[in-house]
Amino acid sequence: MRSGDLVDALMALGFTQYESRTYIGLLREEGQTAYAVSKVSGVSQPKVYEALRRLESRGAAVQVGADPLRFTATRPDELISGLRSEFGARATAAERELSRMLSETGEPERSPAVMSSVVSRDVLMQSARTSIKSARTKLYISGWEGELSELAEDVDSAADAGVASVALVFGRGPAPIRVGRVFQHLSTAKMVYPNHQNRHLAIVRDGLEAIWAMYSPEQGWTGLISSDRRMIGLTRGFIRHDIYVQKTFEQFGPAMEEVFGPGMELLADVFTDVVLTDRSTRAAAGDQHLRSAG
């Protein structure tokens, strides 16, 4: 370690710059006078005397002679051990006082965690790869096959490391992710693909981080990355509830389309309770689907 780095390290432990330089100077030779330490450390003699007394009071230096005054540095391992004990005692005392304060005043209001903005596809994909590579226990992923195909290798590596994953894939082709639990978004396939222009990518890592991004022709990719537990819960809930629909549709798809129409279009209309109750309505819905598909 360079001398400048060592000075910085000692200052981070609470020493002043003069104390740090003086201590380093003492390490060069045992039993030095203030004059000698001043020469090797570059600290003026008046400042050296002051620094030596402070180091002595902190247990970082020991006086070993009186005529003339001579000082020796405390061995670094002993110094660090003493500092560790001192800081540990201070931390324990601070923890005790903080606990006492909170017991009297209650928990303080917590500020929302900082959210980072995503403003391009490159930033989004790099952030997604970093998040997946950082996963240790569990991944939730939802997105379109184009973006997920670029992340498939990272998801494979995460699975090899023991990370459990569940993925919801939008698109007509084979799911690019082949590990963990994989669901394809089939319930709206007959309606969404002919007309859909917006895309999204959602990832939740270990319950610690959420990524939510959307694409539109007007704005391109925009989104958020957050460790806020509310954002995490919202994104995870979005993915899970969409998977609930896909699992239901897999079992009861034909019957559900009999009621809600191709692609369950009427189910998506949350402002009404319209269903296909007669043949004419069903025929009209079928014609509308054919026009949309065309």
Spell out the blueprint of helices and strands.
Blueprint: H1 3-12, H2 17-27, H3 34-41, H4 45-57, E1 61-66, E2 69-73, H5 76-105, E3 115-118, H6 121-134, E4 138-144, H7 145-160, E5 164-170, E6 181-184, H8 189-195, E7 199-205, E8 209-216, E9 220-226, H9 229-260, H10 279-293
Parallel strand pairs: 4-5, 5-6
Antiparallel strand pairs: 1-2, 3-9, 4-7, 7-8, 8-9
Determine the fraction of residues in helical runs and give it as a percent range. Answer: 40-55%
Largest sheet, if any?
Answer: 7 strands, mixed
| Number of contiguous helices | 10
Which strand order does the major sheet show? Answer: 3-9-8-7-4-5-6
Content-based structural category: alpha+beta
Please state the average pLDDT score: 84
Give the strand content. 15-25%
Give me the Rg, rounded: 33 Å
Described by the principal axes of the CA atoms, the overall outline is elongated
Give a count of the beta strands, DSSP E runs of length 2 or more. Answer: 9
Distance between the termini: 71 Å
N-to-C SSE string, H for helix and E for strand = HHHHEEHEHEHEEHEEEHH
Low-confidence stretches: 192-197
What would you note in describing this structure?
The chain has 294 residues and is of the alpha+beta class. It contains ten helices and nine strands. The chain has a seven-stranded mixed sheet with strand order 3-9-8-7-4-5-6, with helices on both faces. Helix 2 packs across helix 3. It is elongated and about 110 Å long. The N and C termini lie far apart (71 Å).
